[in-house]
C-alpha cells in the first residue's frame, strides 16, 4: 500500500483580519482493490489498479495483472468478452470510472478452462478494469465464488462471498451454446468469417460413428454460412457455419443441439491472416433437470471416441477436454494465432483519448532476434490418496514455474512439498533451469488438483539483434503495415522474434510523444505502437512570412504600456496626480 499526503489550507477572514491554518492529510492508497456487484446470474467485477499512478515495475514500462475466478465443481462461469472495459481512474467520477482507455494501450488474454485473465498494461497508469461473468448452476442455491487478482507479481487482492444463483435468472440470456472466435494474443479481438464444421456422435447400423450436421439442424436458419472445401483430395464442398459480424461478431450460436449428445466442432476456414487450427472441440449440452452426471455421460461414450479424445482414456482428462453445458447453455472460446506480422499505429492524448495527428507518416526500424531453444524437463510426482494424477511431466522453457492448485472450494485437500511444509491450496514450484524431479503430497482430498505452467519472458540472444529494414506507416493506409514473408527460424531451427522501434515522425518532434510498444518480440501477430502526447507540445507562430512573431511581441508591449498610462491617468483624477488643497 502507498501513503499519499495532501495539504489543505483553511482561511478565515473578519474585517481587516485574516487567519490561516494548514492541515496535512495522509491517505492510504492500495495498489489494487476489487469489488463486485450481482445482477441476477451476472457478477460484475471492478478492479482499481494503481490509483496513485506509482512506478510499480521499475525498469520496465509495463506490468501484468493476473486474475483468477474460483468456482465450485457444480457451477459454470462464462466471461462476457464484450463487457471488458478499462477506464482511467478518476476519483471524481461514479465508481471512479473516467474516460475509456484505448485498447491499443493494453493486451487482454483469457484462459477459459482455468477462468484466468491476464492483462498487460502500462505502468504508472491509474485505471479501473471492469468485466462480467455469467454464473450458471444446475440447481438454485447459494454458491461460494472467490476471485483473486495479482498485480506485478507482488500486490494481491481477493474477494469471496456466497452468491444466490437462480436458474431462471440465467435461462433467458443463456439458452444456447455460443462459440466465440478470438485472437490468441488478445481475447477482446473477436474474429469474423471463421468457418466451422460440426458432427454428432451417433450409432449407425449398430456402429458408433461421426455424422455430419447440416447448419440448419444445429443453428438458426438465419445464421451465416458459406461453402468450403472439406476434402482437398476429392474436392468435396459443404456448407458450414461461420462466425458473424456486427452485433454477433466472432460468434456462432448453436440453438438446436440434442441434449446429452456428444458433438465435435472443427475449424475448416480461418479468417484472413490467421492460421487454421487442427483441434477438435467437444461439446455436450446436458438435459434440463436431469440426474445424469458428467461422469455418467463419459461412461456412456464408446471406447473409440474415448481414445480419440484422450489416448490414455483417463476419466478426468477426458472430462477436461469436453465442454459441458447445462440446459441453459453457455459459451466457449476458440483462439487463432495470427500468421503474419502486423504493425498497427495509434495516437492518443495524455489521458488516453484517441486523437487525429497532424503528421501523415511515421518511420520505424524492424529488428529480429533469435529465440533460444533452452528447455528443461520437470517430472512432478504426486502422493495422494484419491489419485487424479500419479505424476505429470512438463517440458518447459528454462526459467518457467509450475503452479499446483486445489481448484474446488469444497475440496479440503492441501498441498505439501517434499519436506512436509504445507502450502495450503496453492503451491508454486520453480523456476526450473535444469531437468528436475519434484515430489509433492496431498492431504485430506485432492480430487480437484490441477497444474499450470508459467513461462518467463522470451529468452533472446540480444547481442545478435539483426536490423531487418525500415518501415513507413502512412496515414492514408490507416497506419497499418503487414508482412507475410518474414522467416520464422534460421537454418538451425532457432526461432526468430521481431520488434520495432520508432525513429521519426514526419513534421513533428519525437519529444512531443511517449512511444508505447505492446507486443514487441513476437514471431507473428500484431505489434501496437501508440504515440501518447506528453502534454508538453509547444505551438510557435512562423518566423517568416506574414508579419512574423517579433512584430507581435512589439505590438503586445506597446498595448501593455498604453494600458499602464491609462490607469495612471484615471488615478490622477483623485489619486496619484491629485492637486493638494491648501485653503
UniProtKB/TrEMBL annotation:
UniProt biased composition (Low complexity): 1-13
A Pfam cross-reference name: Cna_B
Domain CNA-B: from-to ranges: 464-514
Region Disordered, residue ranges: 1-22
Membrane-spanning intervals of the chain: 552-569
Keywords: Membrane, Transmembrane, Transmembrane helix
Gene3D superfamilies reported in the protein's UniProt record: Collagen-binding surface protein Cna, B-type domain (2.60.40.1140), Immunoglobulins (2.60.40.10)
Coiled-coil ranges per UniProt: none
InterPro entries given in the database record: Collagen-bd_Cna-like_B-typ_dom, Ig-like_fold, SpaA_PFL_dom_1
SpaA-like prealbumin fold domain sequence ranges: 176-292
Protein name: Prealbumin-like fold domain-containing protein
Amino acid at each position: 500500500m502507498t501513503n499519499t499526503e495532501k495539504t489543505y489550507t483553511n482561511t478565515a477572514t473578519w474585517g481587516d483580519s485574516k487567519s490561516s491554518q494548514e492541515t496535512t492529510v495522509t491517505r492510504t492508497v492500495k495498489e489494487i482493490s476489487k469489488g463486485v456487484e450481482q445482477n441476477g446470474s451476472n457478477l460484475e467485477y471492478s478492479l482499481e489498479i494503481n490509483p496513485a499512478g506509482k512506478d510499480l515495475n521499475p525498469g520496465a514500462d509495463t506490468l501484468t495483472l493476473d486474475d483468477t475466478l474460483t468456482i465450485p465443481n457444480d457451477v459454470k462461469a462464462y466471461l462476457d468478452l464484450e463487457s471488458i472495459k478499462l477506464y482511467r481512474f478518476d476519483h471524481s467520477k461514479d465508481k471512479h470510472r473516467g474516460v475509456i482507455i484505448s485498447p491499443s494501450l493494453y493486451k487482454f488474454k483469457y484462459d477459459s478452462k482455468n477462468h484466468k485473465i491476464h492483462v498487460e498494461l502500462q505502468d504508472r497508469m491509474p485505471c479501473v478494469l471492469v468485466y462480467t461473468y455469467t454464473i450458471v448452476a444446475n440447481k438454485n442455491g447459494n454458491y461460494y465464488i472467490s476471485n483473486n487478482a495479482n498485480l506485478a507479481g507482488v500486490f494481491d487482492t481477493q474477494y469471496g462471498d456466497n452468491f444466490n444463483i437462480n436458474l431462471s435468472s440465467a435461462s433467458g440470456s443463456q439458452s444456447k451454446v455460443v462459440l466465440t472466435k478470438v485472437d490468441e494474443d488478445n481475447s477482446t479481438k473477436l474474429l469474423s468469417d471463421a468457418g466451422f464444421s460440426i458432427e454428432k456422435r451417433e450409432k449407425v447400423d449398430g456402429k458408433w460413428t461421426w455424422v455430419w450436421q447440416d447448419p440448419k439442424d444445429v443453428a438458426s436458419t438465419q445464421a451465416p454460412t458459406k461453402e468450403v472445401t472439406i476434402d482437398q483430395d476429392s474436392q468435396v464442398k459443404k456448407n458450414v457455419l461461420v462466425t458473424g459480424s456486427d452485433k454477433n461478431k466472432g460468434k456462432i450460436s448453436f440453438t438446436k443441439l440434442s441434449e446429452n449428445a456428444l458433438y465435435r466442432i472443427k475449424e475448416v476456414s480461418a479468417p484472413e491472416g490467421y492460421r487454421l487450427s487442427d483441434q477438435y472441440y467437444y461439446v455436450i449440452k446436458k438435459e434440463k433437470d436431469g440426474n445424469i452426471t458428467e461422469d455418467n455421460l463419459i461412461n456412456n461414450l464408446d471406447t473409440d471416441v474415448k481414445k480419440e479424445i484422450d489416448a490414455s482414456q483417463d476419466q478426468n482428462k477426458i472430462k477436461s477436454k469436453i465442454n459441458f453445458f447445462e440446459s441453459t447453455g453457455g459459451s466457449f472460446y476458440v483462439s487463432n494465432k495470427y500468421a503474419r506480422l502486423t504493425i498497427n499505429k495509434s495516437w492518443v492524448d495524455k489521458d488516453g483519448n484517441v486523437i487525429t495527428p497532424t503528421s501523415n507518416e511515421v518511420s520505424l526500424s524492424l529488428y529480429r532476434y533469435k529465440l533460444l531453444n533452452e528447455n528443461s524437463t520437470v517430472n512432478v510426482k504426486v502422493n495422494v490418496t484419491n489419485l487424479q494424477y500419479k505424476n505429470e511431466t512438463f517440458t518447459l522453457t528454462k526459467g518457467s514455474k509450475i503452479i499446483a492448485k486445489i481448484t474446488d472450494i469444497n475440496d479440503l485437500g492441501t498441498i505439501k512439498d517434499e519436506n512436509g511444509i504445507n502450502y495450503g491450496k496453492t503451491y508454486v514450484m520453480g523456476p526450473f533451469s535444469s531437468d528436475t524431479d519434484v515430489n509433492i503430497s496431498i492431504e485430506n482430498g485432492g480430487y480437484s488438483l490441477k497444474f499450470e505452467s508459467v513461462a518467463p519472458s522470451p529468452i533472446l540472444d540480444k547481442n545478435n539483434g539483426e536490423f531487418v529494414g525500415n518501415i513507413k506507416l502512412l496515414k492514408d493506409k490507416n497506419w497499418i503495415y503487414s508482412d507475410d514473408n518474414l522467416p520464422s527460424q534460421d537454418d538451425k531451427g532457432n526461432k526468430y522474434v521481431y520488434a520495432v522501434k520508432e525513429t521519426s515522425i514526419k513534421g513533428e518532434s519525437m519529444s512531443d510523444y511517449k512511444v508505447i510498444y505492446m507486443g514487441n518480440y513476437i514471431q507473428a501477430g500484431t505489434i501496437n505502437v501508440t504515440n501518447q502526447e506528453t502534454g508538453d507540445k509547444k505551438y510557435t507562430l512562423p518566423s517568416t512570412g506574414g508579419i512574423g512573431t517579433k512584430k507581435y511581441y512589439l505590438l503586445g508591449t506597446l498595448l501593455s504600456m498604453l494600458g499602464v498610462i491609462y490607469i495612471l491617468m484615471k488615478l490622477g483624477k483623485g489619486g496619484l496626480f491629485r492637486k493638494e488643497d491648501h485653503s
